[in-house]
């Protein structure tokens, strides 16, 4: 099938082979086996930080797009998929959220060190740190710079 790859600084359409699966679960199992059995991706095994995994995947050559890691991280954060990691790693969903209109509030339990900043920006001054196990009650969320800020 035709697919777009990024080669020598340009988007190029190539013909590539793709696998076909009878169902979603078989696809997921095969993808996990592919990453586990391919020595190029050994550095991913046991890593629990999705951002680190995304950057390692890009650096390992998993995708040719120069913005692959950023796109993957943004998708994870836009859809709160990191909460699945927390549940898988700890059995704890990590947060409870209530939604009223567009306003989300709830509690969040941190699973890794997270800086406390004066505003939702990576360049904002750091004024403290939340540590694994710390719980915060929040009254809103803001999506900025590819992150969800409480």
Automatic annotation (TrEMBL):
UniProt KW keywords: Glycosidase, Hydrolase
Domain of life: Bacteria
Record GO terms (molecular function): amidase activity; lysozyme activity
Domain SH3b span(s) in chain numbering: 104-150
Annotated Pfam families: Glucosaminidase, SH3_5
Enzyme Commission designation: 3.2.1.17
Name of this protein: Cell wall hydrolase/muramidase, middle
Provenance organism: Lactiplantibacillus plantarum (strain ATCC BAA-793 / NCIMB 8826 / WCFS1) (Lactobacillus plantarum)
Family: Belongs to the glycosyl hydrolase 73 family.
Cited InterPro entries: Glycosyl_Hydrolase_73, MGlyc_endo_b_GlcNAc-like_dom, SH3-like_bac-type
Lineage: Bacteria, Bacillati, Bacillota, Bacilli, Lactobacillales
Gene for this chain: acm3-M
Domain called Mannosyl-glycoprotein endo-beta-N-acetylglucosamidase-like: residue spans: 4-81
């Amino acid at each position: 099938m035709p697919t777009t790859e990024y080669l020598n600084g340009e988007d190029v359409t190539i013909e590539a082979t793709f696998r076909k699966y009878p169902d979603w679960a078989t696809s997921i199992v095969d993808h996990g086996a592919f990453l586990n059995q391919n020595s190029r991706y050994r550095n991913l095994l046991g890593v629990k930080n999705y951002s680190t995994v995304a950057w390692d995947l890009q650096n390992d050559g998993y995708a040719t797009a120069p913005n692959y890691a950023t796109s993957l991280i943004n998708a994870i954060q836009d859809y709160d998929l990191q909460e699945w990691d927390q549940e898988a790693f700890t059995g704890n969903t990590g947060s409870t959220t209530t939604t009223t209109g567009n306003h989300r509030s709830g509690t969040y339990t941190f699973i890794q060190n997270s800086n406390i900043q004066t505003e939702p920006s990576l360049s904002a001054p750091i004024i403290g740190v939340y540590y694994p196990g710390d719980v915060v009650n929040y009254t809103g969320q803001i999506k900025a710079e590819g992150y969800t800020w409480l």
